[in-house]
Amino acid sequence: MNTMVHPKRVVAFAVVSLVGLAAALPVRAESYPDHPITIAVPFTAGGTTDLITRALTDAMGAAMHASFVVVNWTGAAGAVGTARVAKARPDGYTVGMLPVGPLTSQPYIQHLSYSPESFKYVCLVYSDPQALVVRKNSPFETVKQVVDYAREHPGKLTFATTGAGTIPHLGMVEFAADAGINLVHVPYQGEANILTNLLGGFVDSMVAHPAFVESNPDSLRAIAVMAPKRMPEYPNLPTFAEAGYPVNATVWGGLAVPKDTPEPVVEKLESACRTATSSGSYVARLKNQRMPQAYMGSKEFTAFVLSQYQQTGKLLKSAGMLK
Amino acid sequence: MHQALVDLWYGFGIAVEPHNLMWSFVGVLVGNLIGVLPGMGSLSAISILLPLTYTMHAVPAFLMLAGIFYGAMYGGAIGAILLNLPSHPPHAVTCLDGYPMTRQGRGGVALGITMIASFFAASFGITVMVFASPLLVKAALAFGPAEIFSIMLLGLVAGGTMARGSPLKGVAMTIVGLLVGAVGTDVNSGVIRFSFGLPELSDRIDLVALALGLFGVADFLRSVNRLKFIGTETRLRLRDMRPSMAELKQAFPPMLRGTLVGTVFGAMPGTGPTITSFIAYALERRISRSPQRFGRGALEGVAAPEAASHSKTQVDFIPTMSLGIPGDAVMALLLGALMIQGIAPGPQLITEHADLFWGLIASFWIGNVLLVILNVPLIGVWLKVLRVPYRLMFPCAMFFIAVGVYSTNNSLFEVGEVLVFGIAGAIFMALDFALAPILLGYVLGPLAEENFRRALLLSRGDLGVFFERPISLAFMLLCIALVVLQMLFAVSAAIGKRNDGASP
Amino acid sequence: MHWLVNERRRDYAGGVLMIALGLGAALQGAAYSIGSLRAMGPGFFPTALGILLALIGLAIASAARFARDGDEPVEAKAPEWRGWICLTLAIVAFAVLGTYGGLVPATFAIAFISALGDRDNRPLDAAMLAAGCVVIAVAVFHWGLALQFPLFQWGGR
Fold it and tell me: Which stretches of A64-183 are assigned E, i.e. beta strand?
């Protein structure tokens, strides 16, 4: 057995104890931040949310002369980590990178200790509209063709998503209701399994973000995107709204803190976030990783989350998924 | 064909560049050492070390991660064989015969065979990956929900009765495993099942926690105060550790079959290496002339599943790289690593980043050579672990299990899961139930259920879909044949028993 | 548990346990919607599996009377209560101290308490072993692998 005794250990203990003591002191907003800020991601390392968070914390660290530690608190589709952020000490040293699912869907589906009202919202940093995607050789070119076909053959057209109650699913529920058509939802575990079955001809379409199509240009084609207006990255991709169905299905996420966090601390974080998201290196880094970017300040983000929460509740109810 | 060879040659050129080779070696070494620690599988090794690569260049970063990946996989086999601790779930199957071999003092042979099997299978997998990947990807597209369900059903039927002891009890444990697999959010409806109000249970039960509870903690509960040493007390000479010629000959056909099973499953997304190794083991036991040896230290029971999981892992890179979709959680992490480097996975990756793609493939092979070179002298070191008295060994193992399970998801709740399954496993063992089928049911269950429901959703509730499609029909007929055979065996055994009783 | 040395009794107990597990799963499963073949609900599989498990349990229990007595090597040992209690407490202590104390106390507790489960370990042996594990925890997991687990923390997270 390999047992190394290191003299540095004692030093480390002392340092760690001091950091612990510092954390116990009362918050003083003027000196904030005087020690590292923990950013909690409720999903595993290496996923989209994690990658964006790490790029963001690098840029924010430079903007506010602070250091950030990214931790991954996973579980229950993000609800475990989100609940821990809600319960954290409201001193600005625990910040959550909270995505749409755990904020606006999970409180309806699971019995949780938090709701969207448990947080103060700092800034929204990404927003990724979903698109209806078909095989390259599919006969469907436009939303209108899809609607016409579905009207003639009710309950025949299938669409795959990564699970019941997800944003892609709810987007299609809204679309089907708007258009008065009957589509068959085929849920899958992960996009890997969808893609083989889509290419194999077992399902007719899937819902995915446009970058997914971009990485498989030889086999896939996007019909339209579920966003209020065309995406600047994909100017040729029409929206559902243009066809007369103003459906909005967007995967988004941003920074939030426990609701009792002092206002000056939130303002400091918000201004660092604004600086960071507009910095050239951050923008270039995310573009390079094909990650979606967006920005909303604290006020706008708060209103957005609450309106999304209402809307999601309605859709989940019509999908019969309330707990 | 010619182009593939040219590209591969180019890849070797990249992979043997000194600094690339160095990172590959670092990865293999670190992965190997982490993998040996009980509880630390390749998933936790990569997720822990991933942030370190954020600042590295793409090619060395990826070569190192790939090295960690198969280094940890091989290291995991060592813990499974010597200590009955499957930290990488596919090795749970290796435990079934590897650990009995260790108890008989043949742990070194088991390690040697594992090394040869994984090297052989990985080399084969790499060859397939280079020359036949477009074919395999095309073949994978022919497998729809009905086909996948039929294969899963075959795996359940063949695997449920594979453990030693009563087949009825094996089936019972498979169903228990299926029920454990049902815990969590149902993909089709979003309903959370069997969570008893705990949000942590709305994700599935953690596979690593389940495997280490059933194999590790349950075994400690049974052995504490009863076992002084794990191996036999006799001292091993270096010569005894190497597999003999006869043993190599005995292990070769299972190795080949295991490799083929792994290759076939390799291109199918959604089927992880755990399923593959279970099916390879079940197949080996089915066709063996002396199936009663399995579970008691059969060499074939180590060679086949190890070969299967290694070739599966290599071939798995096909969907990961060429479609940009990961086959399992580890692959998803590796894809994340690519994206950190600003490289978008997908078909264009092979042309746009030829240095990365071909360098990686070449480094797979080089990494496997490094593993062999590294582990031939290390086998002796690993075997020394067995000289540690049990009373000191198991408390350390408990600590490693707890930290290892925690590290996968940073969750202490999952450490609690280990305890629950440890106690349940010890009770089942006390009642003569074999535990491996639980793991099989857990792994196959959700896939079987999902695809069954999906197939019926697409066929509008028509059960005929499983018998109309030729691939599905073939697997269904195999299932039926297996069940009928099993019943005939049972009846004839019962008659034989009665005759024995009548004329003593 | 002493009477479990008999194979027939083990089969009875095992069969009854399976019946109980199966019925429990079926009852809980039936609480979710069962659905139809065309659109199967989340309760379909668990309910069907539970019923099947109960039937198999019944078969195991009723086949028990064919089992022969005592011609298999049996385990005639009393259950190891000390080991069971210590190992259980050790994992519980790790989870609790991991939440409220940090990696160092949790590591010490799990190794120390499990070591006490073996009668041959004196408390001093156990403490030394646990100290060794703490060193590994700090050197390998905390420094070497940068595991996301604070060494010390107070009052939970």
Answer: 68-72, 94-99, 119-129, 131-135, 158-161
Domain count for chain B, please give it: 1
Q: Are residues C50 and C89 in the same domain?
A: no
Mean pLDDT of all residues in A176-184: 92
Residues C7, C59, single domain; the answer is: yes
- List residues of A whose CB lies inside 8 A of any C CB: 1-6, 9, 12-13, 16-17, 20, 24, 71-72, 84, 88
Give the separation between CA A224 and CA A243, rounded to whole angstroms: 9
What per-residue confidence (pLDDT) applies to B270? 61
Interface test with B, best of C28, C58, C118 (most B CBs within 10 A): C118
Sequence-ordered list of residues with C-beta below 8 angstroms from that of A71, at least 6 positions apart, any chain: A38, A39, A40, A41, B410, C148
The B residues from 65 to 94 touching C (CB cutoff 8 Å) are: none
Chains with 3 or more CB pairs closer than 8 angstroms to B?
A, C
Q: Which band of pLDDT confidence, cut at 50, 70 and 90, is reported for residue B127?
A: confident
**Using a CB-CB distance cutoff of 8 angstroms, which residues of chain C are in contact with residue A2?**
136, 140
Asked if the domains A35-127+250-318 and A131-243 are classified in one and the same CATH topology, the answer is yes
Expressed as residue numbers, the domain containing C9 is 2-66
Q: Nearest-CA neighbor of B389 among C81, C78, C121, C83?
A: C121
Contact C135 A4 (CB under 8 A): yes
Topology of domain A35-127+250-318, CATH: D-Maltodextrin-Binding Protein; domain 2 (3.40.190)
Per-residue pLDDT at C157 exceeds 50: no
C133 and C85, same domain (yes or no): yes
Residue among B458, B468, B472 with most chain A CBs within 10 A, to mutate: B458
Kindly state whether residues C86 and C132 are assigned to the same domain.
yes
Percent of chain A scored above 70 by pLDDT?
Answer: 90
CB-nearest partner of A3 from C136, C148, C154:
C136
**Out of B20-29, B109-118, B152-161, which region has the weakest mean confidence (pLDDT)?**
B152-161
Q: How confident is the model at residue A6 (pLDDT cuts 50, 70, 90)?
A: very low
Asked if residue C96 is part of any domain, the answer here is yes
Beta-carbon separation of A216 and B323 below 8 A:
yes
Per the structure, how many domains does chain C have?
Answer: 2
B433 touching chain C per CB within 8 A:
yes
- Domain with B156, as residue range(s), is 2-502
Reduced to 3 states, what is the DSSP secondary structure of residue A258?
A: strand
Position B486 scores a pLDDT of 75
Answer yes or no: do C39 and B461 touch at CB < 8 A: yes
CATH H-level superfamily of A131-243? Periplasmic binding protein-like II (3.40.190.10)
pLDDT of residue B237: 54
List, for residues B252-296, the tens digit of each pLDDT value: 999 999 999 888 887 676 677 888 888 888 888 888 888 788 888
B456 interfaces chain C, CB cutoff of 8 Å = yes
Whether C13 and C46 map to the same domain: the answer is yes
Which positions ≥6 away from B113 have C-beta within 8 Å? B243, B247, B248, B251, B299, B302, B303, B306
Give the per-residue pLDDT at A15.
47
Assess contact for B392 and B25: CB atoms under 8 A: no
Question: Domain coordinates of chain A in residue numbers?
Answer: 35-127+250-318, 131-243
C-alpha distance from residue C19 to each of A314, B131, B419, C34 (Å):
42, 52, 23, 21
Residue in A186, A189, A196 closest to B457 by CB: A186
ipTM, two decimals, is 0.90
Nearest Cα residue to B239 out of B380, B363, B121: B380
Range 255-284 of A in CB contact (< 8 A) with B: none
pLDDT greater at residue B211 or residue C75: B211
Instruction: Find the closest chain A residue to C138 by CA distance.
Output: A9
Stronger pLDDT, C61 or B44, i.e. the higher one: C61
Residues C10 and C42 both lie in one domain: yes
Paired residues of B388 in beta bridges = none
Indicate if the pLDDT at residue C3 is higher than 70. no
What is the distance between the alpha carbons of residues A2 and C140, in angstroms, rounded to a whole number? Answer: 9
Alpha-carbon distances, residue B81 vs B38, B77, B386 (angstroms): 11, 6, 11
